[in-house]
Specification:
By secondary structure, the protein is mainly alpha-helical. The chain has one domain. Helix content is about 75%, strand content about 5%. It contains eleven helices and three strands. α1 runs antiparallel to α11, α3 packs antiparallel against α4 and α9 runs antiparallel to α10. The longest helix is centred in the middle third of the chain and has 48 residues. It is globular, with a radius of gyration of 20 Å. It starts with 6 loop residues before the first helix and ends with a helix.
Length: about 325
């Protein structure tokens, strides 16, 4: 029993969380992850100073991620003893709050539409909302590449990793994964400020993502050009700086038959990144193709998980 629910029941609840995310999208006001980000920022400001930065970062991670996830686990386990229906609703609600499939579509496809009509200023503004690289002087190819890369990588971070950990530990598992992933995005930088303090957030996120990232890469390969995706995964992923983003983005780029990676501007400096994928450079229409790959993978996961849940039941 996972926080009061069986694995088979969690498998059957998973599509409901996906459906809620698809129908409702992100909450525009009072989103829990936004509130978490604000609280995590204040926690970092209070604890990331003085000596023993690594231990301070470890303690901060436990307070920000482990504590609320453990409390959610205990609360749902007790709720399941009182009402199985209420526990199911709570698990689905936690999955909904942790997912970002609809958000990926809502942020990425407007970039493709802006590029289709040649509106570079709007495309730059929209792209700047979803990537950390500089977009002020980006051309169409740069923006298309950024959009495709963001979709492929966040397909794992915002969707498939969450689904994986929901199956492992129910709603609290999905919550833990998204909180850990959010902290990695906030603290997991190799800068003087975050190198030691954020090391725990970065390493735990790597560990939590290890299996989901490779399942995501495999799914991309199955739903695209399988041979090409596999070749890119094997040859290009080891050169990428992230042990999890490398397989996901290399397999996704190979599946789509587009060339990603290469030069990108961060904080005013050009960074040369290893190539990903093969074929022509990404275009605006490839953002749409990348979204279709991510959404098809979500359908594949949901269908496979439900079938497995039914047979297990």
């Amino acid at each position: 029993m996972l926080a009061g629910l069986s694995l088979s029941l969690l498998a059957l609840l998973l599509p409901l969380g996906l459906l809620l995310d698809w129908l409702l999208g992100e909450m525009r006001r009072w989103h829990p992850l936004v509130g978490f980000g604000n609280a995590a920022g204040r926690l970092e400001s209070a604890m990331n100073k003085g000596g023993m930065c690594f231990m301070r970062g470890l303690c901060a991670w436990c307070v920000a991620v482990l504590l609320p996830s453990a409390l959610a686990w205990m609360a749902l386990a007790q709720l399941a003893k009182w009402s199985l229906l209420a526990a199911c609703i709570a698990h689905v609600a936690l999955l909904y709050f942790s997912l970002g499939l609809r958000s990926l579509r809502d942020h990425a496809l407007p970039i493709a539409r802006a590029l289709a009509v040649g509106d570079l200023p709007r495309a730059r503004r929209l792209t700047a909302r979803i990537v950390s690289r500089d977009t002020a002087q980006a051309n169409e190819a740069d923006l298309a590449k950024a959009g495709v890369e963001s979709l492929l990588e966040n397909g794992n971070d915002a969707v498939f990793g969450t689904l994986f950990w929901f199956l492992v530990a129910g709603g609290p598992g999905a919550l833990l994964f998204r909180l850990a992933n959010t902290l990695d995005a906030m603290w997991g930088y190799r800068t003087p400020r975050f190198d030691m303090f954020g090391r725990t957030a970065a390493r735990i996120d790597d560990a939590l993502n290890f299996i989901p990232a490779r399942l995501t890469a495999l799914s991309y390969a199955l739903l695209g050009n399988t041979r090409q995706a596999w070749q890119c995964w094997r040859a290009q992923a080891p050169a990428w700086s992230s042990p999890n983003a490398g397989p996901v983005m290399a397999a996704g780029a190979g599946a789509l038959g587009v060339l990603l990676g290469g030069a990108a501007v961060y904080h005013g400096e050009i960074e040369q990144r290893p190539p990903l994928g093969t074929g022509a450079a990404a275009e605006g229409s490839d953002i749409v193709r990348a979204w279709r790959l991510v959404s098809a993978t979500a359908c594949l996961w949901a269908g496979a998980i439900v079938i497995a849940g039914v047979f297990r039941a």
